[in-house]
Design brief:
The complex is a heterotrimer of chains A (365), B (314) and C (148).
Chain A (H helix, E strand, L loop, with lengths): L2 E3 L1 H23 L5 H11 L5 H9 L1 H32 L14 H36 L1 H6 L5 H31 L14 H4 L5 H20 L2 H22 L7 E4 L20 E9 L4 E2 L10 H10 L2 E9 L4 H25 L7
Antiparallel strand pairs in A: 2-5, 3-4, 3-5
Helix pairs in contact in A: 3-7, 4-5, 4-7, 5-7, 5-9, 5-10, 7-9, 9-10, 9-12
Chain B lengths: L9 E12 L2 E12 L3 E5 L6 H8 L7 E6 L7 H6 E4 L11 H11 L5 H10 L13 H14 L4 E5 L7 H18 L2 E6 L11 E6 L2 E7 H6 L2 E6 L13 E8 L2 E7 L9 E3 L3 H10 L6 E2 L18
Parallel strand pairs in B: 3-7, 3-8, 5-6, 6-7, 9-14
Antiparallel strand pairs in B: 1-2, 1-4, 8-9, 10-12, 10-13, 11-12
Chain C lengths: L5 E3 L10 H15 L11 H8 L3 H13 L3 E4 L3 E4 L13 H15 L4 H15 L12 H4 L3
Helix pairs in contact in C: 1-3, 2-3
Classes of the chains: A alpha+beta (365), B alpha/beta (314), C mainly alpha (148).
Chain lengths: 365, 314, 148
Amino acid sequence: MSTFTSPPTDGKIRTANRTMNGTMNATTNGPRHGARNATTAQTTRRPRLSGMTWLVWRQHRAAFWTMLAATVVSVAWIVYQRGQMTDFLDAYGFPAKNLDDAEKEFEPYIGAFSSVTTGLTAIPVILGVLLGAPLLAGDLENGTAKLIAAQSVSRNRWLATKLALTGLVVTVTTVTLSAVFAWWWSPIKLHYVDIDWTSREFFNTTGPVPVALSLLSVFGGVLIGVIVRRTLAAMVVTLGFTVALQMVWGYFKLSLGDIVTATTKPVSPGTPITFPSSVPRTAHAFDASYVSGSGKLFDLTTCTDTPAEEATTSCMKKADIVGASIDYIPISQMSSMQWFGASILFALTAGIVAFLFFWGRKRLV
Amino acid sequence: MSDVMYAGEPALEAHGLGMRYRRGWALRDCTFRLPAGRVCGLVGPNGAGKTTLLNIAAHVLKPTQGSLSLFGEAPGSVESGRRTAFLAQEKPLFRRFTVAETLRLGRELNPGWDQRAAEDIVRAGNVPFHAKIGTLSGGQRTRVAVALAFGKRPDLLLLDEPMSDLDPVVRHELMGTLLAEAGERGTTVVMSTHVLAELENVCDFLVVVSGGGVRLAGDVDDLMTVHTLITGVREGEGLPAALGYHTLVEARTSGRQFTALVRPEGPVTGPWEVAAPSMEELLLAYLRSPDAPPLITPTAQVQGQASGTGTVAA
Amino acid sequence: MGEVVAVEYRIDRRSGVPAFQQIVQQTKQALRLGVLVPGDRLPTAKDVAEKSAVNPNTTLKAYRELEREGLVEPRPGQGTFVRRTLGRPETGTDSPLYGELVAWMSKAAAAGLEQEDVAALVASALEKQYATGTTAVTGATTTRSTGE
């Protein structure tokens, strides 16, 4: 019925075992594994994260390190490419010699741009889907949100730390890439005409635009994650959201600028029409039109019904076309357009963050 | 640990607590009081509102009606957040964290963290500290989750089906650890389960919820004392008329014999065999008879609660 | 007496006997058999909880019962210690009474009695001799638990 044991010995042996295990753990497994030792080792190695910051960094460190590493690799590649390009330009005799004449020889260097810009323009979508969507959806799906809620920290602090740390890494990454890419492009920006500065490859990858687009995509993804509460579904919806954002942005970005119109001096109707020459070479030009004596605009297809020159001339005369005009946006507006657009995106992002705090917080378990 | 089972400071008090989901009421008019220092079994069939009740206490859900207080504070308050630990049914942990990192999580996020207590619980199960959570067995993972909950040094520990996915050996071992730790610190424990055998010898306080409401609440000793199991020979249809004098919880007949669980309102006299029910018999009787009058003993009553909802005769 | 010895309780969850009574019974049995002697420390409520998953309050309640019967005494900060033994010369396996019982058993076996028959005989003889029933060995009795 009863068995004989002697607790002091038993107890001592157990305690001894415990301490032995403890020390053995510490010595054999090294400082990485013992919880307490890990702390001291890390203090000496690098500034130690603590509290919520440590948790968020630890949870998402794979994503954060990947982003930072990818940034470093991209920067190295861009530095290398820019070196190649400037070497060529020096050998070519730029800027004394016009780049337009280089044509074929300069093509590989332009090709290098397009491979990088493809990646850069995809960044907001990639970050939104892979970082933003799972950021909270993962915790909601796995129940780890409940785990955090059971600790002695407020939900606000958890949410704030998550958003702040993610926002910081996204900002560091995109600011760096934006700056380095702009630096690569800067020598030829005002001299090379085959690059349209309003194209997504250049407009969306320089200045504040990549930062703003990425932040909106990521925090939009976070909000979608909180609504959907399933990682995979959130990623799919976020993919749709970020692609739509790119489309809407592409559609509206030109309306951010002030359109400048260049018009030729009026000539007498019937004489051949020349086009305005005051349009800068690097400007983004819209459609050109004919202008009548009364200032009315005509399509360039006017009087092209007949191939006969006689008929065309008389047609033009009849229509009282005295000149031509071109609408364009000069590259000098690029920066102000980018900042204007980015500030709208930043405002939307701030709205999403505010919404996450006021509404999403309640759903964070 | 207090030697006396006093009915001192309440660890948890529910006042007319109700929770309604889209599909209907999960909990309704739930009122009881849990004195501090008890190990309380929260019993009920699946879907009876046990998880809902615990989630409200853990500030995961907001009740539709009524209120709940932990040591006199609302569940969301800083104070009650610090004093309460909650182990959700699915025992969520970060799968990619190591055991050591999981304990560090507890240390980083809880001011009163007890690293030694947490490490001891982990070590007692021989769980390696450098192992990733995702590679652990169900029992080991539960142990780490329990360690995380205990390391917080809570005054109130809320456990939702803590042992549901464990084999009997691990279950016994973990329950032992849990009781020893709770006993040493005087931690109040609320443990939900639908496995009645899990509660025998473990709980000294019971709360039975069924059909959304509280059916039975009180110290186990009190509850056992006021119930009697009567076995006898049937006289015609139904129960002997003499039994009508007592409060009937459940009656069952088989052949010529009847068995009745009653709350005697006086001496039970008759040609019957009278015995004390086991905890399992008592719980089963209440769970099987949703119409039986609920019983909330004085220690489990909220101040000012209408004693009409079942007072102890003795 | 300096040596501290403990028993390990074996709590049977299926027996229907409350754990508190099982602890009381097993302690008394150990005292009777001389497994526990005065000066021995009983396992702490924490030890019992760890080994047998019994609520510490249950163990303490059992110890209070033993204390009330004067068998053990709590020493603050040290634990619960055995005060006196239940063992008597007559209860040892070397006592003449034990010898007589063994002899009787072999007679019963020779008469073809099964173990259950013997147990029933012993039980009814016990009942007759100790009918007042000061100790309820099995089953929870309503009279007992009303005490506290």
